[in-house]
Amino acid sequence: MNTQAPFARMNGLGNQILVIDMRGRKDRVTPDAAIALASDERTRFDQIMAIYDARTHGTDFRIEILNCDGSQAEACGNGTRCVVQALSAETGKQSFTFETRAGIVTAEENADGTISVDMGKPVFDWDKIPLAEEFHDTSRIELQAGPIDAPVLHSPSVASMGNPHAIFWVETDIHDYDIRRFGPLLENHPIFPNRANITIAQVTSPTSLEMWTWERGAGLTKACGTGACATAVSAARTGRTGRSVNVTVPGGLLHIEWREDNHVIMTGPAEWEWSGRVDPATGSWEREGEAA
């Protein structure tokens, strides 16, 4: 077996993605390889999307997702769009069904080049998100950051889109809040046994909101697809918006629709940057045949 696998450096609204083609192989992308790739400025990423042969009937491929600290993620909407664009360019197909840790995900490339991903159904049950203690109403839980008598952030909505999210609602510009300070603390709060993605969000109209996310295992990113979905459904659930919203993230614009069948559809762009080959065990790589 050739030790190297093809990969592409891509992005979904600036969310840096490495798509690694592991089809036809028995090995896997290792946490050590992910950490090595993340430590190199030229291959630094937010998520790795490793494509494997299907093992579940009715699916096209299986995707494993790795964060830059080597941990696995259940879902990545921006990365899924990158996978669809790469596979569509290769195969000519527009629609795909993937197996992920979060379940079965379907996606399609639209005529305008954008890609829509069915992110599945949101989960609001406290023990399925999961949280470490029971909350009857997860649209607003008791959690705060900052001084106890004057918290800077408080009372987030929590939900799972295959991975846990906490959304802190603010009335002023989201950039007024130091997510680099509070993100790591809240990500690792004991209330989240599996850690959590932390979002600060401001509703700007009944059909729009602005947000940024400190991603579990990745840090501050330009876009978080599952975070956008969790924020949109939480905004609708709490009466802040309707069920169809435009979500502005640092990298650009996503459209999120929470359909009546409870499925969440995320639509946005993906962009190819460059390609190469990588050793999935060590993370050593080459770009266009030239050693790194």
Word description of this protein:
The chain is of the alpha+beta class. It has 2 domains: 5-120 and 270-291, Diaminopimelate Epimerase, Chain A, domain 1, CATH 3.10.310; 144-262, Diaminopimelate Epimerase, Chain A, domain 1 (Roll). It has helices at residues 31-39, 77-91, 179-187, 225-237, and strands at residues 5-12, 15-21, 47-53, 61-67, 72-73, 95-100, 103-109, 115-118, 144-145, 153-154, 157-160, 164-169, 197-205, 208-215, 219-220, 244-249, 252-258, 264-268, 271-278, 285-287, 290-291. It has a 19-stranded mixed sheet that branches. It is globular.
Mean pLDDT: 95
**What is the CATH first-level class name of the largest domain?**
Alpha Beta
Low-confidence stretches: none
Distance between the first and last residues' Cα: 21 Å
CATH architecture of the largest domain: Roll
Find the CATH topology of the largest domain. Answer: Diaminopimelate Epimerase, Chain A, domain 1
Helix content: 10-25%
Question: Structural class of the helices, strands and pairings?
Answer: alpha+beta
Task: Report the portion of residues in β strands.
Answer: 35-45%
Count the E strands.
Answer: 21
H/I helix tally: 4
What coarse outline follows from CA principal-axis ratios?
A: globular
Summed up, the domain count is 2
User: Rounded to an integer, what's the Rg over CA atoms?
Assistant: 19 Å
**How would you spell out the order of helices and strands?**
EEHEEEHEEEEEEEHEEEHEEEEEE
Main beta sheet:
19 strands, mixed
Write out the CATH superfamily name of the largest domain.
Answer: Diaminopimelate Epimerase, Chain A, domain 1
